[in-house]
Q: What sequence folds into this?
């Protein structure tokens, strides 16, 4: 088990390049299994979740090969559309195999993902969508069995909550269903749009992604294509927050600024200088910070385009040194404050009451041994370590590696004193 060691108090400067979006990759790769022929998915992030999916695909009989940041996925030869518990317990997003396999094979078996470190995370809306498309489902021994022997038929589906996972999973199944499907109250995250664009490349007809209503006309003849996924707006937001926290002048390149409007607005409200630009071929964000205590602001997480829940934990580290008191409301997940005890060990003054965290800014944080409990809590601890006086060691780096490619190399290239120890 590896750990990160960070000696804080150093400003960051230079340029960091953002990798492909994790939450697009873990949906588009399963979608590639729906095509009757190989696809090449480009701009994949070099993260554990992508490697896990490659392993699952290979065990299902698909042919997978990496070519740099691209993966060639040939689904021909795939036999058993099942993702067993050992796989799903390692990667929640394996549940996208439900929508992908149900449409291709007419049946699928996916282990029910247990809850995780940020909440119960049921998949009732996913199941409701599959049943609306004509599937029969049953749960037995922790496995969800779904079958649609006569194929899937388009339907009108209303999502009680604008769930990202349910929206995407239903899109995958509907792309192979007979007729028209309409998803109302759909999620609008950038990766939902990215999956829709990929499905259109394969030959489905998906309209309205990025709005509340998505219409999908399915096709039984989806053919493999090459596709480059979007940059990861959560990784980009994390580095913007890190630059604000450590102080300095950082350019974050290979981003889509409109995907970052909520975090840009919050950082500017806190007093940081955030600008966007393009050098002709790609967009970049620039964050300039004097590293002093920021203005305390309130945060409410909301579905896109609201403030993203995935950046609630990283930005809380920055708020821990605010010049006042911040109120954070986590509206998406019921238990997403596991970073708080470790931040308090470092000197933060944060109290949690249900979905509300009250962050009283303190003069400074001091480094000490802490441990990551989930992916974004780990990112929050890295940011706290960059700000803290002294040395911070972060255990369970494997949580961080799930969603951030080469985090210590990227931060070291910006001047951070950070290393990974076995
Ligand atoms: C996706 O999770 C992301 N994961 C999460 O990122 C992200 O935090 C979340 O969307 C919100 O943006 C991937 O894309 C792989 P939801 P997902 O369905 O799909 C409830 C990260 O750090 N819900 O929008 O699970 C659910 O419990 C990860 O990169 C139901 O009740 O999010 C939660 O409270 C963490 N029933 C809320 O909706 C359902 O059937 C939002 O969940 C589905 C969800």
A:
């Amino acid at each position: 088990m590896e750990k990160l060691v960070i000696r804080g108090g150093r400003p960051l400067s230079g340029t960091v390049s953002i990798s492909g979006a994790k939450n697009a990759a873990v949906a588009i790769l399963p979608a590639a299994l729906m095509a009757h022929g190989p696809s090449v998915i480009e701009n994949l992030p070099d993260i554990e979740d992508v490697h896990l999916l490659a392993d699952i695909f290979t065990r299902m009989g698909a042919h997978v090969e990496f070519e740099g940041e691209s993966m060639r996925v040939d689904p021909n030869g795939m036999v058993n559309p099942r993702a067993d518990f050992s796989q799903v317990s390692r990667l929640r997003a394996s549940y996208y195999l439900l929508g992908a396999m149900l449409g291709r094979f007419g049946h699928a078996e996916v282990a029910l993902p247990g809850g995780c470190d940020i909440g119960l995370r049921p998949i009732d809306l996913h199941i409701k969508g599959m049943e609306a498309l004509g599937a029969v489902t049953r749960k037995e021994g922790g496995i969800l069995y779904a079958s649609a022997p006569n194929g899937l038929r388009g339907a009108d589906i209303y999502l009680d909550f604008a769930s990202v996972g349910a929206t995407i999973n239903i899109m995958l199944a509907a792309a192979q269903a007979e007729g028209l499907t309409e998803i109302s109250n759909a999620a609008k995250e950038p990766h939902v749009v990215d999956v829709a664009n990929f499905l259109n490349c394969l030959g489905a007809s998906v309209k309205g992604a990025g709005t509340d209503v998505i219409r999908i006309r399915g096709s039984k003849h989806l053919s493999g294509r090459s596709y480059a996924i979007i940059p990861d707006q959560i990784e980009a937001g994390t580095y913007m927050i890190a630059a604000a926290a450590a102080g300095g002048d950082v350019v974050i390149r290979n981003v889509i600024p409109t995907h970052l409007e909520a975090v840009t607005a919050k950082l500017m409200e806190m007093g940081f200088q955030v600008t966007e630009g393009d050098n002709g071929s790609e967009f970049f964000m620039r964050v300039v910070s004097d590293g002093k205590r920021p203005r305390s602001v309130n945060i409410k997480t909301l579905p896109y385009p609201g403030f993203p829940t995935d950046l609630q934990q990283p930005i809380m580290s920055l708020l821990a040194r605010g010049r006042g008191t911040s109120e954070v409301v986590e509206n998406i997940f019921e238990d997403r404050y596991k970073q708080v005890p470790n931040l308090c060990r470092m000197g933060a003054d944060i109290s949690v009451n249900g979905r509300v965290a009250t962050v009283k800014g303190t003069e400074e944080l001091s480094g000490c041994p802490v441990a990551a409990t989930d992916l974004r809590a780990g990112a929050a601890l890295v940011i706290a370590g960059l700000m803290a006086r002294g040395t911070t060691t972060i255990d369970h780096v494997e949580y961080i590696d799930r969603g951030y490619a080469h985090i210590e190399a990227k931060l070291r290239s910006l001047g951070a004193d950070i290393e990974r120890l076995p």
